[in-house]
Each structure stands twice: as structure tokens, then as C-alpha cells.
Specification:
This is Metallophosphoesterase. It comes from Anaerostipes hominis. InterPro entries: Calcineurin-like_PHP (IPR004843), Metallo-depent_PP-like (IPR029052), Metallophosphoesterase_sf (IPR051158). Keywords: Hydrolase, Metal-binding. With about 290 residues, the protein is an alpha/beta fold. The chain contains 8 helices and 14 strands. β7, α7 and β8 form a beta-alpha-beta unit. α7 packs across α8. The protein is globular.
Length: about 290
């Protein structure tokens, strides 16, 4: 009987591994439409491709499948939500940089940091100048890198406001994380300008309520990798912060007039499992109400 149980466990484990390997390479395009009266006429139909959590994963040689999917969206701009690399001492960041170099030849790219980039930044005694060199390479190829700052994304006539929020380490803690208050966000980022449609790149989706209170119209987040394993009618099972069945796992959410689009991300790192949870390219179309 024990032999049968062990054999069944080995077969199940092998099947899960093969299914996960297949899922990790099976890209999915998710399309969203965000409607707002605050959008200028010139941004009616504006398309954003949102990428996050690549973790140096590759889809075909030099990410050709990923680039082809992005090209198929014909975006006006590409917004990057962070964690495109893996913060390990022995890791190469060339996969992420090569993708940014190739995309920057075609599109305007705006890049915000996730917890992996910020770990490099905050721990120079471990990683040396890896963060500074990485950001330098991004800027060399024309990527607009944002760190706790805002920029006006213009169409030539009008503009929307894009802000990147770098969260503190305490907001990424696996146990007992400390949410940022709207006052802390204002101290860090300044006030959201109510005259402009406000997009916020905030890697961790846990704090959507605080982002909404700060004054954003659209939040773009990642970090949770879709909950790793997704169950029908249940959703994601576990977040990187070991939250079981997290409130926010993937898709579109709304609080008041604020909308959050939470991508399942493109890769993973320590636990490379995805089941019923395809890597995501988010294509977002803005529509004026």
C-alpha cells in the first residue's frame, strides 16, 4: 500500500512539474479598457502595454514571442512595473536589459522599480553598484526610469500624469507588513494633481485602498505572480508574501473611481511554479467617457 501511495505521489509530482514548465512558457494577452471623464480627447484610444515580473524569463530566443505579442498590441507606450530581474549576487541582468533595448527602439518605455530592483539599491554592501549600473544601462537605451517621482506623458497637445512609488522594505515584509498611509505617500510623492488623469506604478497590490485615497485614477501592479496556482472560482492560492488566497491576485479591481489592473506577471524566481496561471502581457486601452 505504501509503495502505491509513493508511486502515485511521484507520478503526480512529475505531472505538476511538466505542467508548470509548460505554463511558464505559455504567454497570454489580457486586454483591459479603462474609461474616465478625466482623460483628454487626445488620449481616447491610447494603448499601454504593461509588463511586470519578468525575472529574466525568456519566451523563445531573445524573447521573440514576447516582443511579437507586444508588437501585436501596437501600443503608444510600454509601462514597466518592476522585478524584471532577480536580485541575486550571481545573476545576470542581460535578459531584462536586452528586452528593454529592443523595445526602446520601437516604443516609449517608462520603468518603475519592484522589490528586486530596490533590494539591489538598498544593499550596496551585498550587490555593489549593480543597481546603479543597471539603471545607467536602462537610461542609455532611452528608457525613462522613475523612482518616487512623476512625469507628464504627453501626446503633443495634452498629457496624463505617471507616478512611480518605491515602497519601503517594511511594505514587502512576508509577515506583518506595514501599509503606507496616504500621508506617507504624499510626503514621498507629493499630492496627486486632480486636474490630470493619474496613473500610479506601485509594484505591491496589497495597498490599493491607500493608493486610491492618495488620488490615483489607475494603478498598475504585479508582484503576486497571479497567486502561483489558480483555482477555478477561487483565484490565486498564495502570494510571494505567503498570504493564502490573497484579496488581490490578478485582474481588474475598483475602489470608488480608482481602478487597479493587477498583472499575473511574466516570470518567477525562487519557486518556479505556475498552474492554471499563464504569464501575462497586459494591453490597456484608455477611453474618454
Amino acid at each position: 500500500m505504501l509503495f502505491i501511495i509513493l508511486t502515485a505521489a511521484v507520478i503526480l509530482g512529475t505531472a505538476v512539474c511538466f505542467a508548470s514548465m509548460n505554463e511558464n512558457q505559455n504567454l497570454s494577452l489580457e486586454e483591459y479598457t479603462v474609461v474616465s471623464a478625466k482623460l483628454p480627447e487626445e488620449f481616447d484610444g491610447y494603448k499601454i502595454v504593461f509588463l511586470t515580473d519578468l525575472h529574466c524569463n525568456e519566451f523563445d530566443y531573445q524573447n521573440k514571442a514576447l516582443i511579437d505579442m507586444i508588437d501585436g498590441c501596437s501600443p503608444d507606450a510600454v509601462f514597466v512595473g518592476g522585478d524584471m530581474l532577480v536580485s541575486r549576487v550571481d545573476s545576470s541582468y542581460e535578459v531584462a536589459l536586452d528586452l528593454m533595448r529592443e523595445l526602446s527602439r520601437r516604443y516609449r518605455i517608462y520603468y518603475a522599480d519592484g522589490n528586486h530592483e530596490l533590494r539591489l539599491k538598498r544593499n550596496e554592501e551585498v550587490y555593489g553598484v549593480a543597481y546603479k549600473e543597471y539603471v545607467h544601462q536602462l537610461k542609455e537605451c532611452g528608457v525613462v526610469h522613475l523612482s518616487n517621482e512623476s512625469i507628464m506623458v504627453d501626446s503633443g497637445i495634452s498629457a496624463i500624469c505617471l507616478t512611480a512609488f518605491d515602497m519601503e522594505e517594511k511594505q514587502y515584509r512576508k509577515f506583518h507588513p506595514a501599509p503606507p498611509s496616504s500621508e506617507e505617500m504624499t510626503d514621498t510623492l507629493g499630492d496627486a494633481d486632480p486636474e490630470f488623469f493619474q496613473v500610479l506604478l506601485a509594484h505591491n497590490p496589497n495597498y490599493f485602498r491607500q493608493y486610491s485615497k492618495w488620488g490615483c485614477d489607475l494603478v498598475l501592479s504585479g508582484h503576486f505572480h497571479g497567486g502561483m496556482v489558480r483555482l477555478p472560482k477561487v483565484g490565486g492560492v498564495i502570494s510571494p508574501q505567503f498570504q493564502l488566497f490573497p484579496k488581490y491576485d490578478a485582474g481588474e479591481y475598483q475602489i470608488g473611481t480608482s481602478i487597479m489592473i493587477l498583472s499575473r506577471g511574466l516570470g518567477n524566481h525562487s519557486i518556479k511554479i505556475r498552474l492554471f496561471n499563464k504569464p501575462e502581457v497586459s494591453c490597456i486601452t484608455l477611453k474618454k467617457k
